[in-house]
Amino acid sequence: MKSKDIKSSGGHITRREALKAAGASMLTLGLGGLPGSLISASSKKPNIIFILSDDHRWDAMSCMGHPVVKTPAMDRLAREGVLFENAFVTTSLCGPSRASFLTGQYAHNHGVKNNLLPWNDQNVTFLELLKKEGYTTGFIGKWHMPGKLPKLRGVDRFVTFTASGGQGIYFDCPMIVDGIPVPSRKKYITDELTDYAIEFTRENREGPFCLYLSHKAVHFPFSPPENLEELYRDSDLHLPPEADPWVTLTNGNFYPGTLQSYYRKYLASVTALDRSIGKVLEELDSLGLADNTIVIYAGDNGHFFGEHHMFDKRWPYEESIRIPFLVRYPGHVKNPGRKVGQMVLNIDLAPTLIDLAGIDIPSSMDGKSFLPILKNNSAPWRNAWLYEYYRDYSYSIPDTFAVRTERYKYIEFGNNRRPELYDLAIDPGETKNIYPTTLGKTETNRLRKMLRNLKKGEAE
């Protein structure tokens, strides 16, 4: 919702003026009498917890019908909130995606185009904007953008790590707390970060607070804690038919071990992450904060496990660009437990949180607030969006630009590779490139124009 005005019978009033009027009437109306997003802009601002994981595929949750992995905490978020079935990242790579979550911008605007270009300290994050509105803010976990650690304006607690080039390590990872190096307190990094998150929540229970909890898990090498190492040892993994056990050693990959062995560890790491989410939810329950805390869970990109004969991410296919996205806000999500199909993006997080707090959404943000969807499944929404990938040396994937609509995906590459076009309605696995077909030529003309407009910043 980029519009800064709210219609009234007498003309226009600003959002801030509307909020003041709503606050004055609350004594007689109560929260139930407030329309639209004004519910979330009451005098008691909601707490916010955003949990971000690494390389978690959209379908690797039991609430998505995955045949193996068990994720009861994520299932709880879906059952008590909304599950976005069509959530995506605008760049399928850690650094650019994380910067997009923080700023609400595409990579070409925030500048972190790949894992080599550094964060610009002039970038404005939603944490900074919330701090100005009275929030206590915390960033806990993986930063993983090139260069030195940033000067995050408006962040009261900054807990992160720089080990292994900012990737962190799964076991005994040294931490940096508000600029001071400290040893790890817990052996497993997911537990370590969860403890810091729970401490932050307890210390700021009076609210309002905003916590950005960013996990290393479930990034390669997919290391679960010792007590879960054998969790899925005997499970039928249901890998795709084209999955080659040795794809980990082909197509430029050099990951010793079979695809199956990595996938078992990956699923066990997802379950370990899920348990940590469960601890955060239990803490909110015990502190009596659950009803006034919005919890959002997402992944920074997906991962291939044999699809398209690939291992890793970066390519613009569904397994790479599609992410889990769960939102729970008790009492404010209409008909909890529903799944929605609108195409929500990582760039939509920041404007949504700003909107939730009753703040005008900056025009510099490329995303949209999805609060209307939380209230109404049929809320109007985007019908197309831009995917961009800028070459990340030394990987061989070229610059890539694509337009993804509800039915089609059209892809252009920055080398001599032929464009690709897929009809996702009949080919969700993107196995048949219809670009050279008669239908493809017709659709290409339309989609190519759409892609050009999106690259110029023109909404579809």
CATH topology of the largest domain: Alkaline Phosphatase, subunit A
**Largest sheet, spatial ordering of strands:** 9-8-7-6-10-3-11-15-4-16
The CATH superfamily of the largest domain appears as Alkaline Phosphatase, subunit A
Gyration radius over CA:
22 Å
Low-confidence regions: 1-42
State the total count of DSSP E strands. 21
Strand content: 15-25%
The chain-level mean pLDDT equals 90
Return the structural class.
alpha/beta
Task: Quickly name the level 1 CATH class of the largest domain.
Answer: Alpha Beta
* CATH architecture descriptor of the largest domain: 3-Layer(aba) Sandwich
Integer tally of domains: 3
Apparent shape = globular
Helix percentage range: 25-40%
Number of distinct helices: 11
What distance separates the N and C termini?
15 Å
How does the SSE layout of this entry go?
Elements: E1 5-8, E2 11-14, H1 15-29, E3 47-53, H2 72-80, E4 82-84, E5 87-88, H3 94-103, H4 107-110, H5 126-132, E6 136-141, E7 157-160, E8 175-177, E9 180-182, H6 189-203, E10 209-214, H7 259-287, E11 293-299, E12 304-305, E13 311-312, H8 318-321, E14 322-323, E15 325-328, E16 338-340, E17 344-345, H9 349-356, H10 371-375, E18 384-389, E19 400-405, E20 408-413, E21 420-423, H11 438-455
